[in-house]
Amino acid sequence: MAIPIKTEQEIAIMRKAGHILAEIMRELEKQIKPGIDTLQLDKLAEELVFSHGATAAFKGYGGGRNPFPATICASINNEVVHGIPDESRILNEGDILKIDIGINLDGYFSDMARSFAVGEISGEAKKLIEVTEKSFWKGIKNLKDGVYLSEYSKAVQKVIQDAGFSAVKNLVGHGIGKELHEDPQVSNYFEYGFRDIVLEAGMTLAIEPMVNEGDHKTIIDKNGWVFYTADGKLSAHYENTILITEKGVEVLTA
Question: What's the CA dihedral at 96, 61, 40, 98 to 10 degrees?
Fold first, then answer.
């Protein structure tokens, strides 16, 4: 498994891309309220991406006969990831909305996701969103040059399980750079027998806990994109593009 080590020049581009992406996400968050449809959010996201001189990483992804059709993934409630924006998908009070967005800037990708409350949400939904974010920060806390990647998987899994939730197992984080998805795969749970790697300064990863309120199992829609929780319960998602350094982690999408 050849994992690209980024040069200072490459990191500078990815850092700029990360800052742009974070700014776009902040603008999208301002529009999230009951009554808005997810296609409106997608159109805004596309305008913002182009205004920064970038291109949408997801639109057309997959190619072939079934490319992803939108700039953002907009996943509601029991949709885990890859929700397709549509004018018929209207946000309601109490929903949780996951927005996942990636851009390509000057040949380098950046990727991030957040889970948002739509109006007032239940205490359990609020806890799910908070635990998902907490698991990310706990997971990256001890990562640096020379540390095994499995330290992330173990730490994030413990936070999730201690809260009574489940880490999604069939969807993972990934390396990122010149490609949207590079090696290695980054699991949000640990099992003996996993192929582990030692992290090196200059590696860039898209780290993304996906956490289910109930069981970890998912099912995929006949459209080939949207993953749902198998038990119909809620799911949350939190993602940042990060850089491994000699001393720790820099979050490029901060």
Answer: 10
By the 8 A CB rule, do 53 and 17 touch? Answer: no
Q: 63 phi and psi, to 5 degrees?
A: 55, -150
Fold of 8-251: Creatine Amidinohydrolase (3.90.230)
Distance between CA 231 and CA 216 in Å, rounded?
9
Distance, C-alpha 88 to centroid of its chain: 24
Distance CA 238, CA 207 (A): 8
Instruction: Give the domain ranges of the chain.
Output: 8-251
What pLDDT is recorded for position 228? 98
**Prediction pTM value:** 0.97
State pLDDT tens for residues 51-103. Answer: 999 999 999 999 889 999 999 999 999 999 999 999 999 999 999 999 999 99
